[in-house]
Amino acid sequence: MQLIKRSIQESIEQKLFKGKIIIIYGSRRVGKTTLAKQIQEKYPDTSIYLNCDEPDIRNAFTNVTSTEVKNFIGDKKLVFLDEAQRIENIGLSLKIAVDSFPDIQIVATGSSSFELSDKINEPLTGRKYEFHLYPFSIDELQQIYSWPETLRVLEARILFGMYPEIIQASRDEVKALLRSIAGSYLYKDVLQYQNIKNHDILERLLQALALQIGNEVSYNELAATLGINKKTVANYIQILEKAFVIFRLGPFSRNLRKELTKLRKIYFYDTGIRNALINNFNNFNLRQDVGALWENFIISERIKFNGNSSKDVNSYFWRTHKQEEIDYIEEAGGISGFEFKWKKGTFKFPGTFIKAYPDAKIRVVTKENFRDFLT
Questions:
Q1: Do residues 207 and 278 touch, judged by C-beta distance below 8 A?
Q2: How far apart are CA 153 and CA 172, in angstroms?
């Protein structure tokens, strides 16, 4: 299969050798190592790639002096630290490196933002550029698919997701691969963080969230269902967010009393992972959740598009206590409202919203017209 160039690669390369550390976040198996090595290929003689899952690499960068850092990397000018969260006190080591050797560029990747960001935020204040690598986007797939081909594989991409391995796998392999990603690899960072040991509760929580995509999520109801307290639910959800498994949308409100202000919606970055968690890979004609799946997929793709394009956007949903709703709201200078429908049909945007936000742009996005929404 043709190698797909990631959308953020050019932006990363533009930040090289600017006197700051570059941090690339992303879940395991999302392609961080491949991206790092693609960049490294342009600097074959002056770069070094270091896998921090290896004990000797971790030891070499743990609690080091500037002299020890320099002795280890030698005359290399571009250093890649893959899975850098594995290094104890990595933030301090990176601070020493960037302060002592501003002509050396370090690129650190991390699959656990709760570990890596916690370790680097204070030491690297003002000393870093941060990027987020997502699973493949529809826009990135245009490198290997024509648009008619994209439409032909759209249902498969919604069912099985956009992880690099999944894109390249045969139909016979894809389910086992997804279960592997959703199981051992997906949980690996989450369960290690704060010594979380209750795999069963975590799995049940993820399954509950997977069954509620498109609906508001109540932490109280989740707590009652799982038999744990609300604080634990909130903590687990925050951890799952920082592991790039899920993301939240809060309610959009400008203090209209009829608008919801407490609940939130939770979506999965990858719908293939979501379907693996509930073990449902049925074709669309056999599913009852097509509308919710499309909503999750298209919002996730929009999040990727905005992130890959470095667009500064606030994202919400909108709903009133009378059940008037709009699936997705973006605020970026102005307000835009989007309703997502798998099949083309009629939809009337709520008069309450139009009256409250008369300058808002509104649009229905379907499988027939979503191209310019994501590319």
A1: yes
A2: 16
Look at strands 325-332 and 334-340 and give their pairing.
antiparallel
Dist. CA 121–CA 12, nearest whole Å: 19
> What crossing angle do the helices spanning 90-100 and 113-120 adopt, rounded to 10°?
50
- Residue identified by tokens 């956007």 is 313
Separation in Å, CA 71 to CA 65, 66, 188, 277, 349: 10, 9, 33, 46, 64
Instruction: Quote the pLDDT of residue 2.
Output: 76
Strands, E assignment, the chain: 21-25, 47-51, 78-82, 105-110, 128-132, 216-217, 246-251, 264-268, 314-319, 325-332, 334-340, 361-365
Mean pLDDT for 309-338 is 93
Both structure tokens of 26: 């992303």
Q: Domain range spanning residue 205?
A: 138-374
Structural domain ending residue among the three candidates 101, 132, 163: 132
Lowest mean pLDDT among 149-158, 227-236, 357-366: 227-236
Q: What is the CATH number of the domain that holds 295?
A: 1.10.10.10
- Among residues 322, 334, 329, the alpha carbon closest in space to that of 363 is found at 329
pTM of the model: 0.92
Burial of 345 (0-12, 13-18, 19+ CB in 10 A): exposed
Rounded Cα gap, residues 106 and 122, in angstroms = 17
Of 110-124, 195-209, 259-273, least confident by mean pLDDT is 110-124
* Predicted pLDDT of residue 91: 83
* 97 and 211 co-located in one domain: no
